[in-house]
Design the sequence.
């Protein structure tokens, strides 16, 4: 992209050329051309010329775009008025450089290419496009600068040709004395010229390309790389871009003469690789001008800048007592001001320009916000807080306040004292202090007025109670609904004269014992600085009747499941009692002392509470014991089974208790060990049906029993299958095989009369319920087949028919 800026120290004879910055949004006053470089670059490659005198389409007046040569559907030159980012380089099409935002630019070129050869033997050669402006330098003394600055950015596709045939972008500043080399850069992607016979394949000198500011794009080329015989190839990630670069030059030496500026973007000479560039121009043709404030505030950070020059040196001079923060040798200077002003100057020099500028600066004192005195805490409702601003410098603009620290509200008060009244919410105050329109206002250190909500005494629960003579279990009073902290509890015999607890009791829970007369109680509550409040009153009446006396023994016990336990207690003073859970009514005590022994069989752990009353005292004595019931021991001896004579049977009993448990089997018939969970048995012809029980005893002494029945067949191992079943009935509702002496069931399958399999399983004990996919099957005959392996390893296969009866 190319950018022109005209700079001068004085306003005389500094008018910029018309539409030099494309502000007309077209190419008016610019000369343009397009062409094809089949025979190489140079004037002979220009095929179409667009003068600056005529209107479009033959001239550039009013022309916003021009197509590529002989390619009307693709724009080769276009004015850009809205900013976008380049698809390969990501840089903006309309730049902002050193804080200056350009309004317009043009784009020279596109990604369109041509290739020679092919089925139509088309001509090769790449597209070329250029724009040029004839600048009439205003007359005047050569010592008066007439400077211009342009910046450029470009995108080049690597063609792997010899360097002279690679895509390129160039800028040429031509004067009556010849080309100004420092203002006329030219860029291409250099190669080592090691091409193959077809003119391609040269290695890119990537180090030189990077040294010139080029970077490889992450975006692939939209054009196929040419393959053998021009038959196409692959998309390559070999597109390079160069971001914005500025060039500034002084035309003061050419006062009253004409110079030209030309920008051109050329595809590779063979035509198969593209080039395009951007151009934008600043419409300011004065000399060097420092950008920055001439009226500043004391002790402020300030930035001054001048347009950058390529390869330039910079030398800044600042007012006395000011300090440089950064940028002494760059075009952007950051300084910190002091109380005094003075002159600020810069000298900017490169091979194309030698410029200076000076501005005068005045300094204003910066306002000082100071600090607020008067932070305090008040109680909500009627309150007053006086705040005073001290150690400030400047003029008070207004006060502000906030109740959340984020949203601030103005107070129209310009005095140094403010009286806040009747606040209901904690509030922070600050003062805004300014000093004219130049320096930014300063805010004071804040003051906070904290508002405490009013004290609320709350209620005491229960509000009434009774204590009997000798009652050791007191009445617990609980404070609720209060706002603030408990300062102390108080008691009174008449509700008029109150006495504080000594030492002070600040707990919201208070247990009352040992009174000898009816007494009232309350609490004193205070929140922050607010006046204290008292709670509602609770009254505890004294009853002279003696409180019951009894004790439960033992306090806690542990039993096995479904085991009785005796609840023992002794009543030393009392007239009736009741257990809970248990009897619903009180039982009279015949005399004291009385021994109690109640037997219960609890099914779960829990508390048993003894309630004892004594005539005249309404309060029961409550004493409890906890009974822990061990979990029920569930023993699984296994599923009932069938064996044949001589077949070993392995038992495996399990217990729900984590153990280790003791096991005991009976009867001991044919068992090799009756004291283990997994004995083994082998049966003889004398054995028929044996029902075993196995008892598991836990380490605590609890036990459970499981059962298993073994049926001994006097046959060889076999699989028995019934010939009928009645699904849905209470008995005979499943059709299943009965394996005897079978160690594994391979399959059991059932088919209907159409040959469709309606059921299968390989699990012993499972069978068909007469359903298929949830639908009942019809009555009638079905075919079954079964196969299993007996305990000796022999395979038994059988099949037959059965009848389903509905």
Sequence:
């Amino acid at each position: 992209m190319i950018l022109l800026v005209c700079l001068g120290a004085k306003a005389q004879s500094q008018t910029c050329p018309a539409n030099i910055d494309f502000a007309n949004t077209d190419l008016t006053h610019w000369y343009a051309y397009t062409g094809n470089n089949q025979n190489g670059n140079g004037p002979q490659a220009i095929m179409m010329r667009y003068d600056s005198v005529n209107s479009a389409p033959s001239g550039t007046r009013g022309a916003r775009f021009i197509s590529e040569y002989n390619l009307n559907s693709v724009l080769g030159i276009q004015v850009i008025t809205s900013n976008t980012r380049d698809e390969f380089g990501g840089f903006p099409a309309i730049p902002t450089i050193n804080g200056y935002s350009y309004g317009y630019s043009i784009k020279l070129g596109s990604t369109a290419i041509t290739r020679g050869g092919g089925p139509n033997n088309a001509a090769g050669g790449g597209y070329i496009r250029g724009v040029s402006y004839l600048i009439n330098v205003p007359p005047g003394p050569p010592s008066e600068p007439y400077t211009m600055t342009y910046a450029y950015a470009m995108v080049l596709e690597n063609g792997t040709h010899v360097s002279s045939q690679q895509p390129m972008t160039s800028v040429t500043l031509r004067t009556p004395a010849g080309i100004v080399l420092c203002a006329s850069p030219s860029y291409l992607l250099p190669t080592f010229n090691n091409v193959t016979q077809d003119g391609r394949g040269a290695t890119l000198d990537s180090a030189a390309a990077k040294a010139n500011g080029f970077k490889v794009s992450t975006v692939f080329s939209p054009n196929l790389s040419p393959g053998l015989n021009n038959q196409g190839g692959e998309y390559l990630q070999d597109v390079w871009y160069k971001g914005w670069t500025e060039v500034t030059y002084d035309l003061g030496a050419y006062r009253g003469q004409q110079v030209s500026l030309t920008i051109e973007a050329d595809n590779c000479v063979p035509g198969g690789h593209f080039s395009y560039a951007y151009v934008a121009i600043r419409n300011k043709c004065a000399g060097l001008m420092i950008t920055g404030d001439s009226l500043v505030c004391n002790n402020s950070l300030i930035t001054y800048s001048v347009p950058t020059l390529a390869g330039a040196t910079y030398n800044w001079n600042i007012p006395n007592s000011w300090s440089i923060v950064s940028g002494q040798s760059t075009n952007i200077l950051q300084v910190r001001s002091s109380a005094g002003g003075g002159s600020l100057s810069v000298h900017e020099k490169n091979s194309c320009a030698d410029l200076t500028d000076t501005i005068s600066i005045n300094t204003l004192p910066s306002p000082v916000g100071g600090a607020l005195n008067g932070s305090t805490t008040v109680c909500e409702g009627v309150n007053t807080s006086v705040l005073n601003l001290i150690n400030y410098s400047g003029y008070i603009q207004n006060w502000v306040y906030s109740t959340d620290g984020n949203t601030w509200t103005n107070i129209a008060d310009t005095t140094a004292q403010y009286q806040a009244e009747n606040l209901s919410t904690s509030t922070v105050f600050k003062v805004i202090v300014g000093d004219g329109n130049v320096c930014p206002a300063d805010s004071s250190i804040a003051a906070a007025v904290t508002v405490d909500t009013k004290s609320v005494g709350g209620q005491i629960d229960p509000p009434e109670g009774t204590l009997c003579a000798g009652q050791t279990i007191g009445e617990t009073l609980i404070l609720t609904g209060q706002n603030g902290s408990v300062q102390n509890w108080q008691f009174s015999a008449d509700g008029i004269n109150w006495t504080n607890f000594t030492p002070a009791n600040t707990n919201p829970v208070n247990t009352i014992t040992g009174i000898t007369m009816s007494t009232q109680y309350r609490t004193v509550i205070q929140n922050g600085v607010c006046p204290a409040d008292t709670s509602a009153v609770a009254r505890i009446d004294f009853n002279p009747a003696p409180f019951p006396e009894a004790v439960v023994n033992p306090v806690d016990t542990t039993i096995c499941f479904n085991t009785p336990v005796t609840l023992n207690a002794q009543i030393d003073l009392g007239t009736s009692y009741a257990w809970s859970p248990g009897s619903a009514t009180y039982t009279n005590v015949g005399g004291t002392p009385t021994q109690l022994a109640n037997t219960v069989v609890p099914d779960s752990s829990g508390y048993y509470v003894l309630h004892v009353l004594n005539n005249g005292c309404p309060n029961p004595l409550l004493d409890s014991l906890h009974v822990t019931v061990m979990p029920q021991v569930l023993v699984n001896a296994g599923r009932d089974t069938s064996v044949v004579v001589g077949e070993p049977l392995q038992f495996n009993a399990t217990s729900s208790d984590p153990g280790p448990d003791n096991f005991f089997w009976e009867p001991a018939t044919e068992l090799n060990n009756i004291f283990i969970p997994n004995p083994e048995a082998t049966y003889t012809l004398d054995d028929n049906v044996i029902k075993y029980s196995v008892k598991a005893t836990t380490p605590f002494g609890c036990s459970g029993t499981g059962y298993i029945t073994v049926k001994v067949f006097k046959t060889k191992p076999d699989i028995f299958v019934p010939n009928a079943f009645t699904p849905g009935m209470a008995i005979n509702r499943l059709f299943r095989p009965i394996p005897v002496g079978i160690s594994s069931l391979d399959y059991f399958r059932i088919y209907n009369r159409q040959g469709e399999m309606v059921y299968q399983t390989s699990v012993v004990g499972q069978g068909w319920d007469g359903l298929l996919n949830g639908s009942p099957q019809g009555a009638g005959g079905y075919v079954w087949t079964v196969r299993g392996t007996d305990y000796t390893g022999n395979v038994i296969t059988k099949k037959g028919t059965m009848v389903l009866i509905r």
Remarks:
- The helical segments are 206-211.
- The chain is about 0% helix and 50% strand.
- The first helix runs from residue 206 to 211.
